[in-house]
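Quick one, tokens below. Sequence please?
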């Protein structure tokens, strides 16, 4: 069983991952901003702090061996380029510095599918974060979803027929699979599998691999 620390415990991924980890017997500490800590799912140790200021939660992960970092700007769009740099990048820098300092055995980072012909600033920031993960020297898993379907994220279901066609055509097949849609259930299964199977070095988990993960 892993002893897991997760940033963004009240976020789209965090609020679903925390109870699943607890259900499977893992020990979980989850970070939440002051005032949002009451929204954390049950079954975890509450850590109050700011993901943009690693010093606010330093010393709160004693004994943890796994660090999950899903923090990022909600509903990314090209108009949020500055937010990607001031939130996604800053949060990842702080998390990696603290995880390295605490000698975390396994760092799990939720990135984004690459390369992609759109969302240039978003891709650049996530690629920079991925490189920091590699340079950290920690065992790490990098998950690369494109868009996650689930509650509140349902409009892309309209695109599924177009994806199906694109995946059948030789000229568009690779891109459609790399930038395919995954469900929140598939993401949870992929994150749980990442926690429970520590790699040696850095492991990349792209969209086809996320889709193939066994269902919960």
């Amino acid at each position: 069983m892993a002893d897991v620390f997760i940033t963004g415990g009240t976020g789209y991924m965090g609020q679903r991952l925390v109870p699943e980890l607890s259900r499977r017997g893992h020990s979980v500490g989850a970070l939440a901003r002051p005032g949002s800590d009451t929204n954390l799912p049950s079954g975890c140790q509450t850590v109050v702090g700011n993901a943009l200021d690693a010093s606010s939660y330093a010393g709160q992960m004693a004994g943890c061996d796994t660090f999950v970092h899903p923090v990022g700007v909600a509903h990314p769009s090209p108009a949020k380029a500055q937010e990607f740099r001031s939130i996604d990048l800053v949060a990842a820098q702080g998390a990696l510095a603290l995880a390295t300092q605490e000698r975390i055995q396994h760092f799990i980072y939720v990135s984004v599918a690459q390369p992609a012909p759109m969302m240039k600033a978003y891709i650049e920031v996530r690629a920079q974060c991925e490189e920091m993960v590699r340079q950290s020297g920690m065992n790490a898993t990098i998950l690369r979803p494109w868009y996650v379907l689930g509650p509140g994220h349902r409009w892309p279901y309209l695109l599924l027929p177009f994806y199906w066609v694109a995946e059948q055509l030789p000229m568009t097949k690779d891109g459609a699979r790399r930038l395919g849609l995954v469900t929140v259930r598939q993401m949870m299964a992929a994150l749980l599998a990442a926690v429970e199977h520590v790699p040696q070095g850095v492991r990349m988990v792209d969209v086809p691999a996320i889709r193939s993960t066994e269902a919960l």
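The radius of gyration is 17 Å. The chain is about 40% helix and 20% strand.
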